[in-house]
Write a structure and sequence with these properties.
This protein has one domain: Protein Transport Mog1p, Chain A, CATH 3.40.1000. 26% of the residues lie in helices and 46% in strands. The strands form 2 sheets. Strands 3, 4, 5, 6, 7, 8, 9, 10 and 11 form a 9-stranded antiparallel β-sheet that branches. Strands 1-2-12 form a 3-stranded antiparallel β-sheet. The longest helix is centred in the first third of the chain and has 18 residues. The protein is globular.
Length: 183
């Protein structure tokens, strides 16, 4: 019996440590650096970064889980400034804080190490099929850190099915706590 349990325990430790490994990532151009989970897929669209003046990476985790780390330059195509980003992410398109498909918090000040900014929590209902608003829906929870910069701003956002949010939240916390703004 002991012969079976020990190898299984060692295998479990190997899997756990692999899932918890991080490596340092620095985006080209020196806009930011942070630790990224080694077992998650890292995506980058360099052409889109230059075109929209938003420099970002997307970390794809298990299932419907991801983290974006972004720098919005002052010339970005989407938001006038960090205040405009916060305004557009603390309510739905109709200006509502709460509805049957979304719940938005106010932006609250936060601090992580030497980083200061604002945090937004929101929950959104997503449908398995866009053609049908049937019972095939689930809730997604997002935690967004908005960090003002001299020229532009940074956003670190974590999104997961609400049922998985706490499971992968420590990964986001590690990315956020290791985040170092550049330029």
């Amino acid at each position: 019996m002991k012969k079976i349990i020990l190898p299984a325990f060692i295998m479990l430790l190997a899997v756990s440590s692999k899932d918890n490994q991080f490596s340092k990532y620095e985006i080209e151009g020196g806009y930011f650096s942070c630790l990224v989970p080694s077992s998650w897929d890292l995506k980058r669209d360099k052409r889109g970064d230059e075109e929209y003046k938003t420099y970002e990476i997307k970390l794809n985790g298990p299932g419907r889980t991801w983290i974006y780390v972004s720098y919005y330059s002052k010339d970005n195509e989407d938001f006038k400034d960090y205040k405009n980003y916060i305004d557009r992410n603390t309510k739905d398109g109709l200006g509502r804080k709460n509805s049957d498909i979304g719940k938005y918090s106010d932006a609250k000040p936060f601090k992580s190490g030497k980083i200061k900014g604002f945090e937004i929590i929101k929950e959104l209902k997503e449908y398995v099929s866009l053609e049908s608003k049937s019972s095939d829906a689930y809730w997604v929870k997002e935690r967004i850190a908005v960090i003002p910069a001299k020229e532009g701003f940074f956003v670190l956002s974590y999104s997961a099915k609400k049922s998985d949010f706490e499971k992968y939240h420590p990964v986001y916390k590690k990315v956020l706590s290791s985040f170092i703004p550049g330029k």
